[in-house]
């Protein structure tokens, strides 16, 4: 077991009721839930890996892949939805060759959809790391998010 996991587990007793906070801590540290960490959580809490995986997949907050250097969160809240968020998301998926929750092979971009990010007057919009990208047109996606190769 690596040091990071040991550090996380040291704050818990190993009871099965602690699975969710443990998973949250793991995601805070790694940015996602690595496969080996899920196995260690199962061992630590005395439940099956399938159970841990079932808990993790139930909650949308958990990621199973690392984030790219540029993490794109496309807003699909009401204002963005009526302004074409689905078309923006489709265009991004086609352009980057990945689906929601995935990361590009070169680790440059990762993609997910989120609820309202509080910039409704700029719809359709997205957050890229900490910055808002506003009024995204599907036809401009390849210019806004250039691929390296
Ligand atoms: S609905 Fe997209 S920012 Fe509010």
TrEMBL record:
Keywords: 2Fe-2S, Iron, Iron-sulfur, Metal-binding. InterPro entries: NADP_DH_HndA-like, NuoE-like, NuoE_dom, NuoE_N, Thioredoxin-like_sf. CDD domains: TRX_Fd_NuoE. Its cofactor is [2Fe-2S] cluster. GO terms for molecular function: 2 iron, 2 sulfur cluster binding; metal ion binding; oxidoreductase activity. Belongs to the complex I 24 kDa subunit family. This is Predicted NADH dehydrogenase.
């Amino acid at each position: 077991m690596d040091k990071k996991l040991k550090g996380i587990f040291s704050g818990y007793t190993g009871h099965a009721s602690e699975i969710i906070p443990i998973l949250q801590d793991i995601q805070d540290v790694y940015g996602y839930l690595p496969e080996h960490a899920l196995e260690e959580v199962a061992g630590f809490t005395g439940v099956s890996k399938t159970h841990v995986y079932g808990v993790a997949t139930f909650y949308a907050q958990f990621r199973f892949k690392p984030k790219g250097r540029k993490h794109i969160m496309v807003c699909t809240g009401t204002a963005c939805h009526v302004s074409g968020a689905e078309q923006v998301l489709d265009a991004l998926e086609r352009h980057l060759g990945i689906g929601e929750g995935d990361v590009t092979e070169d680790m440059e971009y990762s993609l997910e959809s989120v609820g309202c990010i509080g910039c409704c007057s700029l719809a359709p919009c997205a957050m890229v790391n900490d910055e808002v990208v506003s009024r995204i047109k599907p036809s401009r996606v390849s210019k806004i998010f250039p691929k390296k190769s």
